[in-house]
Every structure is written in C-alpha cells, then in structure tokens.
C-alpha cells in the first residue's frame, strides 16, 4: 500500500474538509493496524492488496475488530473481562474502516453493498464510548485528588518555586535545564490550558508574541485556527509573572539543552536538531514531575479539567468562560464535561443567600409583631 494512496484516502474528511496532518497520521496507523490484525488472524499477506481488502468481504472487518477487542479484553483483570471494551484504539479502527468503505472503495471500483455499509456503521457506533462528552470516572477521581487544598496549593506555586530553586540546584546544568523546561510548560498549562499537541509545538518565532510597546516581553500566546483541534484560534494574554518565568527559561536554561542546535525555533526543543519535544515525551515528563512533587498523577489534559474546576469554584455557572478558555465549539460540550464540578461552591453561594434572606426575614418579622402594653407604659413613664 503506497503512501500516495493513503494521502488520497485521508486528505479530506467526511465533510470534504482537508484533514490535519495529525489526523492523517492517526488514520494511516489505523490502516496498518487493521492489515496487521488480519495477518495475525491467519490471513495470507499476499491477499491484502488494497484498502478494499480490509472491508470486503465485511467479515474481514469483523475479524479485525474482534482481534483488537479480544486483545483489549485480555488486558483487563479477570473479574472485568465480561465488560465490553469500547473507545480508544477500537473506536479509531472501526471509524477508519467505515470511512474506507463509504468513501474510498467507490472511488477505486464497485461500491460495496448497502448491507455492508450498514453493518460497518453499526460496528462503528458500538465501538464508540457511550458517554462521549463527559469526564471519565478515572479523570474525576484524579481531579478529586488534585483539588485537595494542600495538593492544589503545591501545584499552583510549583513553577515559580522551581524557577527560584534552579540557581542553587547541585545537579548538572542539563538536568536543571530540563526541570526549568517542565516548570515553564506547567506554568503555561496553568495560565493557558492548551492541548498537549499545541503545547509541544509552541514556536518562539510564531506563537510567542511580544506586542508591548518596546517588544521586550512575551505578552501573548497566539495559535492559528488551522493548528487547533476545534479550529478555534487562540490569542491569550500572558501575565507578567508567567512572562518572567518564560524569559528565564529562554535566556538562562534553554541554551543548555540546545547544544549546537541554536537555530531551533521551538520553545521546548527535541533531541534531534530542529525538532520539538514529542507530545508523549513532554507529557510523561510533566506527569512524572508532578507525581514526585505533589503526590498525584497529573497529566497535561487533567490540567484542563483543573482549570475548569478552579474557575467554576469561584464563579459557579460561568460555562461560557470555560468554553472560551478550553476552546470548545459548543457550550453543550462544556456543560456535559463540567456540570457538577462547581456543586460545592454553588451550595456555598446558595447557603450564603439563604442566610441573607433569613437575616432580612428576622427584621421583617420583628417589625410585624405588635408592641406589648407593658412596653408602651414604660415608654410613657420614661417620657
């Protein structure tokens, strides 16, 4: 299967819009996984000659999906193996097979029978998570651990504390530089909760804008809509403290990681010249550091949830602000994800309102009570 053929299949999505490179990469990998599943299931590799082989006959797609379902099930504890394994890798492959059947096969030859398309659509639906658009139980549990007062306090002050500690750290300059790099990454996620891909790909020359009068400090993070998952452009102001930390990273510590790669344009450089730190590598490093420092496993995406909780805690119901901060397309998505996170804060506001109403009620009731005759006599005698 040629690379060229893969591009022709996945260069556009179902709506006719061109797919992003990351999506194309995901689809191509799913195709390779599907073909490998057929081979591992006993199929002769020489019979898999085109993308059509993955979906025609439709039994081939069933074999592929069963292979990944069974493999995922085998990884579960014995007591959970009767549960359906959905989402993740299985959902991506089912989605890719349905796209191939409906959009690629007719371009390459005879369209598939409608019954085949219906079957693939049903498998696609079955493989998707039932609760799309909401936080998983695992994420909620980790968020509950993170928002404990001492834990969240340690997180909020960690980037600046790490910056201050860097100068006295006895470790090698290279190791200290990596710590400051992670501090800068965490600071950005607290101030502007980017997705992991956008964080890793931040460029000094494109995304970090210096729009103050003298152009001396980083004032905004600006990312074009074509680079963002939901095509919502980002133009986010950078607070002074964050700008100072980024400047410390750029001028004092980043050069220790660059070596001879001084022309590297990325804020977080990778190991190879001219590259950025890999998404998974940077994400895992952040998770490991936070686990050591605050005692909770926090991945970069959980910091997006933390941002939502932190704002809703002080401003219950302000989902539109969260929608804008996180770049969701619709307010419905934001509400589905975070409805209930602000329950405790909402209850405090409700109780405060109740106390104000009770205070007002006491005054009204007191004024409505008639004065006693004894009180009137005392008043006349005093006069």
UniProtKB/TrEMBL annotation:
Q: Which UniProt keywords apply?
A: DNA recombination
Q: Which organism is it from?
A: Siccirubricoccus deserti
Protein name per UniProt: Site-specific integrase
Q: Name one Pfam family in it.
A: Phage_integrase
The biological process GO terms on file are:
DNA integration; DNA recombination
Question: Entry's InterPro entries?
Answer: DNA_brk_join_enz, Integrase-like_cat_sf, Integrase_catalytic
Provide any one GO MF term from the record: DNA binding
Q: Please tell me whether the keyword Cell inner membrane is annotated for this protein.
A: no
Superkingdom of the source species: Bacteria
The question of whether Signal is a record keyword is answered with no
Q: Which residues form the Tyr recombinase domain?
A: 145-351
């Amino acid at each position: 299967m040629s690379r060229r053929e893969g591009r022709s299949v996945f260069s556009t999505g179902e709506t006719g819009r061109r797919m992003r490179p990351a999506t194309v990469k995901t689809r191509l990998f799913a195709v390779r996984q599907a073909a490998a599943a057929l081979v591992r299931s006993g199929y002769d590799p020489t019979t898999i000659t085109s993308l059509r082989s993955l979906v025609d006959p439709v039994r081939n797609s069933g074999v592929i999906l069963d292979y990944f379902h069974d493999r995922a099930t085998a990884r579960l504890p014995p007591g959970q193996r009767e549960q359906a394994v959905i989402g993740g890798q299985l959902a991506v492959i089912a989605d890719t097979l349905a796209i191939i059947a409906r959009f690629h096969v007719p371009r390459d030859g005879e369209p598939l029978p409608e019954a085949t398309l219906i079957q693939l659509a049903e498998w696609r639906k079955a493989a998707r998570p039932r609760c799309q658009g909401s936080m998983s139980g695992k994420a909620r549990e980790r968020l509950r651990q993170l928002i404990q007062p001492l834990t969240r306090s340690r997180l909020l002050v960690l980037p600046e504390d790490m910056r201050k500690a860097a100068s006295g750290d006895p470790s090698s300059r290279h190791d200290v530089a990596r710590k400051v790099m992670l501090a800068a990454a965490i600071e950005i996620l607290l101030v502007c909760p980017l997705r992991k891909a956008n964080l890793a790909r931040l460029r000094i020359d494109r995304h970090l804008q210096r729009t103050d009068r003298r152009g001396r400090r980083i004032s905004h993070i600006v990312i074009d809509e074509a680079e963002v998952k939901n095509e919502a452009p980002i133009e986010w102001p950078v607070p002074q403290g964050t700008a100072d930390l980024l400047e410390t990273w750029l001028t004092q510590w980043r050069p220790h990681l660059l070596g001879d790669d001084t022309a590297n344009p990325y804020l977080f450089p990778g190991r190879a010249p001219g590259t950025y730190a890999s998404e998974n590598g940077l994400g895992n490093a952040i998770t490991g550091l936070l686990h050591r420092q605050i005692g909770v496993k926090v991945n970069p995406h959980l910091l997006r949830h933390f941002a939502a909780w932190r704002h809703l805690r002080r401003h219950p119901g302000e989902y539109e602000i969260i929608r804008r901060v996180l770049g969701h397309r619709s307010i419905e998505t934001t509400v589905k994800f975070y409805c209930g996170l602000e329950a405790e804060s909402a209850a405090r506001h409700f109780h405060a309102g109740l106390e104000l109403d009770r205070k007002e009620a006491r005054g009204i009731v007191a004024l409505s009570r008639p004065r006693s005759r004894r009180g009137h006599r005392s008043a006349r005698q005093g006069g």
